[in-house]
Design a protein that fits this description.
This protein is of the alpha/beta class and 491 residues long. The relative contact order is 0.11.
C-alpha cells in the first residue's frame, strides 16, 4: 500500500513541477541542443541527426528521434519534451522499487515473509533516488542521463531475461553510447560461474553486436569523420583531457555525491561497507572457488555503482551531472543497513520513519510547493523576438561575445577544444528559438567579410561590439534588442 501511495505522490508531484516549469524556455546547452536535434528531424526518423544543418555525431540518435516522433502529435514546447524525461523517471523509480523488493527478499527473507514495516522499507531506495538533488532536477529537464539510469537499472533487474535485458542495453547505448555497455561489462564478471560458458559468451557478443549497429552503419557511411567526432572527441578526450575547461580534482565526484545525498550519504556509505565486509567474510569462510560459484547477483547490483564511480574519479573532464545515472544504484543500498539492524527493530523503524519524513519534506518543497523565480536570458529573449518577426528565414550572422572569443583563445592555446566546441556559439537556446539558419563567428575579419558578401541577412551582435565596430553596421537598422544584444537587418 505504501508503495502505491508513494508512486502516486511522487508522480503527481513531478507533474506539478513540470507544470510550474511550463513557461520556462529550454535552457542553454543540453536542453536546447537536444530539442534542436529533434526539431531538425522534422517529424521523421533517421539514424543520423543534424545540428544547425550539419551532421552531429556527439551522441547516438535515440532521444532526438523520440522527440521527432512525439512532435507529430504534440507541439515542440518544453512541457511535452520534459514530460518524456518525467515518464522515464517514473519508470526508473518503478524498476528501483522492484529491484529493491527482489534483492532484499533474496538476501533477508528467504525463509519467512517480511513484515508490513519491512515491506515499507522496500520503498526507501525510491525516495532516496528522487527526494532532491540531481535526479529530481533532471526529471523535468530534457537530458539523456535519466535514460542511461533507466537502462542500467532495467538491465540489472532483468538479468535473467535475455530479451528485455537487450532492450535496456539498446536504450543505454543509443542514448549515451559506450556508457550503455556498463551493466553488460559488469555482468561478464559472472562468466566463471556459468555452466555453459561458450553459450554465455556468444550471447554477450550477439548483444554487443546488435546494440552497436549505429556505430557500424555510421562508420560504413561516414568513415573516419564519424570515428574522429564521436569516439575521439566525445569519448576518449573526455577521459584523457579536461576539455573545455571542465577541471576537477580527485575528490570532485565525492563532493558531488555528498551534495546530492546530503545527510543520507553516511547511510549509503555504511551500507556499502557492510556489504563489503559481508562478502569478505563469505570469501574467507567458503574459499574462492565456492564463493564465486555461490556469488549472488544481488550483490553485483548493490555494488554496481562503485566501479563506475572510481572510473569517473580518474577521468580528466569533470561534470557534476555525470553522477546522475549512478544515483538509483547508490540508493538501492540504503535498506541494507536497516535490515542489518533487525535485532533493534524499534530503532530501525524509527530511523526509517525519520528518513522517509526527511525525503518527503524535501521532495514536497521542490514539487508541490515549488516557487518559480526565473528570468529568461537575454540571448534567448532575442531568439524569441526574431521568431516573432519572421524575416523570410533569412540567415543570421551571429558575432559571439567577447567572453566567448576569449574562451576560444584559451581553449585553442591549451589544446582543450574539440571539433564541436564552437558550433554552438555559446547560445544553443538562441538558435532553437530564432528559427533561422545561424552562422557563428568568433573572428572579426571573416564576420566583416560575410557582412559584405551577403545581400540580405540578419546580424546579431553584442552591444559593446556594436559600439566599437559601428562602422560595420551603417547599412543596418535595429529590429530586436535587449540590454545586452541587438539584432539588425539591412535597411
Amino acid at each position: 500500500m505504501l508503495a502505491l501511495l508513494s508512486f502516486l505522490f511522487i508522480t503527481i508531484g513531478l507533474v506539478f513541477r513540470n507544470l510550474a516549469l511550463k513557461s520556462v524556455p529550454f535552457h542553454d546547452w543540453d536542453e536546447s541542443i537536444y530539442a534542436q536535434l529533434g526539431k531538425e528531424l522534422g517529424g521523421r526518423l533517421n539514424f543520423w541527426t543534424t545540428y544547425n544543418g550539419k551532421l552531429w555525431f556527439e551522441k547516438p540518435p535515440l532521444l532526438p528521434n523520440l522527440f521527432s516522433f512525439v512532435s507529430n502529435f504534440v507541439d515542440n514546447s518544453p512541457f511535452w519534451y520534459r514530460s518524456i524525461s518525467l515518464a522515464a523517471t517514473v519508470l526508473t523509480l518503478y524498476l528501483v522499487y522492484k529491484s529493491s523488493v527482489k534483492i532484499y527478499t533474496t538476501l533477508f527473507f528467504g525463509k519467512q515473509p517480511p513484515t508490513l514495516m519491512e515491506k515499507a522499507i522496500f520503498t526507501l531506495p525510491v525516495w532516496v533516488t528522487i527526494f532532491g538533488g540531481q535526479l529530481l532536477d533532471r526529471s523535468t529537464l530534457v537530458n539523456m542521463d535519466i535514460f542511461l539510469a533507466l537502462s542500467w537499472i532495467g538491465y540489472f533487474y532483468f538479468l535473467e531475461n535475455r530479451g528485455l535485458k537487450l532492450l535496456f542495453l539498446i536504450i543505454g547505448v543509443w542514448t549515451k553510447s559506450l556508457l550503455g555497455f556498463y551493466p553488460l561489462l559488469l555482468e561478464s564478471v559472472l562468466f566463471y560461474r556459468q555452466k555453459r560458458k561458450t553459450s554465455f559468451a556468444l550471447k554477450q557478443i550477439a548483444a554487443i553486436f546488435i546494440a552497436s549497429l549505429w556505430y557500424l552503419l555510421s562508420y560504413l557511411k561516414y568513415g573516419q569523420t564519424f570515428v574522429s567526432e564521436h569516439f575521439i572527441d566525445h569519448l576518449i578526450k573526455r577521459i584523457t583531457t579536461p576539455i573545455e575547461l571542465h577541471f576537477g580534482g580527485r575528490l570532485f565526484y565525492a563532493q558531488v555525491f555528498l551534495e546530492n545525498f546530503k545527510w543520507l550519504s553516511p547511510i549509503i556509505i555504511f551500507s556499502l561497507c557492510l556489504i563489503g565486509l559481508n562478502l569478505l567474510w563469505g570469501l574467507k569462510k567458503k574459499g574462492l572457488r565456492k564463493f564465486v560459484a555461490e556469488f549472488d547477483n544481488a550483490y553485483l547490483i548493490l555494488l554496481s555503482a562503485l566501479p563506475f564511480f572510481v572510473f569517473l574519479t580518474f577521468t580528466k573532464a569533470k561534470l557534476h551531472w555525470y553522477l546522475s545515472s549512478l544515483i538509483p544504484l547508490f540508493a538501492l543500498t540504503t535498506p541494507y543497513l536497516l535490515f542489518k539492524l533487525s535485532k533493534w527493530r524499534l530503532s530501525r523503524n524509527l530511523l526509517f520513519v525519520v528518513i522517509l519524513f526527511y525525503c518527503i519534506s524535501l521532495f514536497t518543497q521542490e514539487t508541490y510547493l515549488l516557487k518559480l523565480d526565473y528570468t529568461i536570458p537575454n540571448k534567448t529573449q532575442l531568439g524569441l523576438c526574431l521568431a516573432k518577426g519572421q524575416k523570410n528565414n533569412l540567415p543570421v550572422l551571429y558575432y559571439v561575445s567577447e567572453e566567448e572569443r576569449k574562451l576560444q583563445n584559451v581553449l585553442e592555446a591549451a589544446h582543450l577544444d574539440i571539433g564541436s566546441s564552437y558550433i554552438y556559439g555559446g547560445a544553443p537556446a538562441f538558435l532553437y528559438y530564432a528559427n533561422h539558419p545561424v552562422v557563428f563567428y568568433y573572428k572579426l575579419a571573416p564576420f566583416s567579410q560575410a557582412l559584405k558578401k551577403q545581400k540580405q541577412h540578419i546580424v546579431v551582435v553584442h552591444r559593446l561590439d556594436y559600439k566599437e565596430q559601428a562602422n560595420l553596421f551603417t547599412d543596418f537598422r535595429e529590429f530586436c534588442d535587449n540590454e545586452d544584444w541587438i539584432a539588425l537587418i539591412n535597411k
